């Protein structure tokens, strides 16, 4: 039996506005402020990634669009305090522009990121893989409508996720976390159709930052399924350490794309996961990588 609206359906939950999150305001020359939109104690990592990319993009020419972001999460961000972003103009070339962004709350550094921008150009092109065939997102139910109460167990984690992150997601296969909750190991792979919950404006920077926001969702947890553990396993300590995004072609973050994730290594209290984002035709649009802390206290 699916979750009822009273126990976790997204229609009964006030979802964060991704457009509002990404709309950082200028506070001075190369200085911006982003508000936090979450009921969680800590700021969702994708929020700072998306806001940092937006802040950096506000300082480059419109014909230079983001192609990569490399971020290090220094301290957990507080959700009741805005994040201030200071942009340093590292390089402005004919083809590439580079910015370093420091996100802070008071004297506490939350994120340090490097964002690179490139003017569009033509050249050699190929990709070595395409997406594994999957049912279309329209043929799949919303995750919160597809899971029985017995499989889900305690629904609080899902309500917390839905109220914290403005991303809609649908899984072509069983979400490995559900099997892990039953004590069953799974391969370190998972995939979901994802998009922002709301339509975004037409600015390409908004959609690049919108995917940066979405890209943090589930990624690190892909390393846990072989161990039959999940992020809410008692004693589990999970924290993102660094995160990278490479954008291969323009796309809209408010349209459905298939996000494949592979947690290919875990050890020494850390795990590493990679991600690939495909369109409906199997074209690779973006790649991600994340390392994080995964250990028992």
UniProtKB/TrEMBL annotation:
GO terms classed as biological process: acyl-CoA metabolic process; fatty acid catabolic process
Keywords on record: Hydrolase
UniProt xrefs under SUPFAM superfamilies: Thioesterase/thiol ester dehydrase-isomerase
Alphabetical list of Pfam families matching this protein: 4HBT_3, 4HBT_3C
EC number(s) given by UniProt: 3.1.2.-
Molecular functions (GO terms): fatty acyl-CoA hydrolase activity
Enzyme class: hydrolase
Domain Acyl-CoA thioesterase-like N-terminal HotDog: start-end pairs: 40-118
InterPro entries: ACOT8-like_C (IPR049450), Acyl-CoA_hotdog (IPR042171), Acyl_CoA_thio (IPR003703), HotDog_dom_sf (IPR029069), TesB_ACOT8-like_N (IPR049449)
Residue stretches making up the Acyl-CoA thioesterase-like C-terminal domain: 155-293
Similarity remark: Belongs to the C/M/P thioester hydrolase family.
Family matches, as PANTHER family: ACYL-COA THIOESTERASE (PTHR11066), ACYL-COENZYME A THIOESTERASE 8 (PTHR11066:SF34)
Protein name, entry field: Acyl-CoA thioesterase 2
Organism of provenance: Gordonia insulae
Lineage start: Bacteria, Bacillati, Actinomycetota, Actinomycetes, Mycobacteriales
